[in-house]
Amino acid sequence: MNEHIKIGDRIQIHIRKMGINGEGIGYYQKLAIFVDQALPNEKLEVEITEVFDNRAVAEIVEIISESPDRITPFCPVYQICGGCQTQHYDYEKTLIQKRDLIIQSFDRYIKKKINPSIIKNTIGAKNPKNYRNKASLPVQKIRGKNVFGMYAKASNQFVEINECPIQNKQINHILNTIISLMDQYQIDAIDPKTKRGYVRSLVVRVSETTQEAQVSLIMAKKSQRLEQLTEDLIKSEPSVTSVVEVINDSLKKPGFFTNQMRLLHGKTELKESLGGYHFMLKPEAFFQLNSEQAHLFYLEMKRLANLKSHEIAIDAYAGVAPISHYISRDAKHIYAVELDPAACESAKMSLEANHIENVSILQSDFKRALSGLKEKKIDVMFFDPPRTGLGRETIDLILSFKPSRLIYGSCNPSTLAKDLEHLCHDYELIETVPIDMFPYTSLVESVSLLIRK
């Protein structure tokens, strides 16, 4: 335990920078102090709440000198909800901060000094509010009424909300209608203690193109009144063209979708368009939550790859294969690698709907897929992995193929930098473009181009 400071101590610090989770970071006797909702260049009085060997955590008692970039959050539950981290910060400044987080990560994890000039300015969102086209929210029964909400940061404390200002407005309206019908038909939220009730979570996705909506009711057990609720829902919300019941009776397991799914109304797939391409999305299929920024994300991948008509590409971690769609006119052939069966099915349907014939969907993990392609000459590899990044085993596979270019889409600056440390032995990092996919959150997305040395 650190000897210089203890829980309950009140100290004054200057905030020097922001951390990867949106917190402010200052120093006290060379010890890093992490302060939630603190901004760079602010002088604060803080109270220590946690102490570790190499850092401490504190909360603001008083802002002695306030940053001119501090603004009033637009969400009434921002202080307790864990969904956003930077609503108290001027939006244009958050774009600068997200680029800086990438620079910090590169400085920390990449031994060879990276010139900051190759890290471009963050591409911001024209519409940083109401951008989320999908909501997956838990429900509870409070004071005799069903409600939807979020969980407070780093806790299981339920935060009741009526609407979320970063979600599509149509989603907010549909959620409130469902909650009202749950009350009417007494199809209550599940009580994790007593096991009474039915509904665990609500998942609503809206097509930015057609404004049609897809509703998934995540149920702990069946209700005979669910069909009547569905009938009234589609009368009240005519945009709802798909309603699915999902039985997920394991309260200990995270996630929403299981193989116990039943179509209650309409069609299984929701049609979405992006970049002139049509995508057929099953309820459980992953698709970027911010359509406008996703379009820019894929355009940057396409630009940086600069594919030639004779080249062959791999689209790894493909999902429903949006990257493959965007580059299909530029490459000779593309192998889209995805393990999830539902995503593969959606990808095949989407490619067929768009009359794209030079993309092969490989339902496989990356290692097995590459072993089947070892006789092929792969020119470019595209990656958009989860937050854990590529990892050493995947990187070794990439290096064995020696593609001329790598396009790395990342949602985590730390794992990106760790992966680049290994990749840059054989490849040169040419350009990294940050893209603000999730405004008012601490999440940092980017696209990087690497060329074989």
Structural summary, described in words:
- The chain has 453 residues and is an alpha/beta fold.
- It folds into three domains: 10-65, Nucleic acid-binding proteins (OB fold (Dihydrolipoamide Acetyltransferase, E2P)), CATH 2.40.50.140; 99-126 and 275-452, Vaccinia Virus protein VP39 (Rossmann fold, 3-Layer(aba) Sandwich), CATH 3.40.50; 134-270, Beta Barrel (OB fold (Dihydrolipoamide Acetyltransferase, E2P)).
- The protein contains nine helices and 21 strands.
- It has helices spanning 91-109, 169-185, 226-236, 291-305, 322-327, 341-353, 366-371, 392-401, 413-423, and strands at residues 10-18, 24-28, 31-35, 43-51, 55-65, 134-142, 145-151, 158-161, 199-206, 213-219, 240-247, 261-266, 270-274, 277-281, 312-316, 333-338, 359-363, 380-383, 405-410, 427-435, 445-452.
- It has a seven-stranded mixed β-sheet, with helices on one face. Strands 17-16-15-18-19-21-20 form a seven-stranded mixed β-sheet, with helices on both faces. It has a five-stranded mixed β-barrel with strand order 1-2-3-5-4.
- Helix 1 packs parallel to helix 9 (413-423) and helix 2 runs antiparallel to helix 3.
- The model has no long low-confidence stretch (mean pLDDT 94).
